[in-house]
Structures are given as C-alpha cells and as structure tokens.
Amino acid sequence: MDSNTAIITDEVVISKIYIIRNTKIMLDKDLAELYDVSTGNLNKAVSRNKSRFPEDFMFQLYEEEFKNLIFQNGISSWGGTRKLPYAFTEQGVAMLSGILHSERAIQVNIRIMRIFTRIKHILNNHSELNLEIEKIKKKLNNHDKNLEIVFKYLDELMGKHSDQNKFPEIGFKVGKG
Predict the structure, then answer these.
(1) Dist CA 64 CA 154 (whole Å)
(2) In this structure, which of 34, 67, 114, 166 has its CB flanked by the most CB atoms within 10 Å?
(3) Whole-number Cα distances in Å, 37 to 14, 56, 128, 137, 157
(4) What is the pLDDT of residues 96-119, one digit of tens each?
C-alpha cells in the first residue's frame, strides 16, 4: 500500500458511508476525495461506463435527500454544487474498481470493500443478538405467566386449607352488656 493510501483510516472511510433509501451509500464527492481525483473526473469515468451502473449500483440524490444529508450529518453545502450528487451503493463502489485504474483507487477500493463487509458482519451479529434477546424475553414472559398461575393455585389452596382448619370456638364467652 502506498503512503498516500496508508493515511486513510477506517474511521475516515466509515464517516463517509451514509444510509439513504435504506441502503448504505457513499457520495461521488467523498469517493473522489478518497481516490484523489476530482469529482468531475470520477463522474466522467462513470458516464463513459454507464451500463456498469444500474440504479441499484448508483443513483442521483433527490434535492430533499441531499438537504437532509447536509442537515443531519453536518456536511458542508459543497460550495455551490450545480448538480445533485451521485450515491454509490456497495456494488457501485465495487464496480468503480473496474473503471479506475490507479494504484491508489485499487487500494482504497479494497479498504472500502473490507469496511462494507465488516459493517455487514456487525449488523448481522447485532440482528442475531436481537433475535436471542427476543427469545429470552418470550421465555421470561411465559415464565411470568406460569408463575402467576402457580401463585393463583397456591392462593386457592391456601384459601381452601384455611377454611378446613377453622375449628369451632371453645370456651367461655364474655358478653357485652
């Protein structure tokens, strides 16, 4: 890995991954910055290879999505951007490696793919953990119901038992009066 690529940390890459339309994406400007090319040149390379980028690999943001992204993530307004940015899904980022041939682009792409894989793994583990927690909750809920039934029966038994143990009062009664 060359020295320019080495300074790109995982945290830098992760900070450039957003969720839009329930999909993890990276924006053209951020990818261009990571690949050390201009956004215009990145988009020109993509437009020359448009057939490699179907809608599920790359799409252009709607104005509202872009405004939301700026507002929620505090990213800059990008200095008078004339066109709305393009969003690249994980598959789109992978496809970029086929059209960008610099050593830096290859190394950055490898790093991005590894991070996407790690994020997917973390999310899968999180989902599995959530499923296990739900199973435990259901078991506890069933145990609670079973305990309620046991205590109800115990109360009934105690009530019957106390009725059977009532003995007639024996002895001298002092009356009021």
Answers:
(1) 62
(2) 34
(3) 19, 24, 40, 51, 81
(4) 888 887 888 888 888 888 888 888
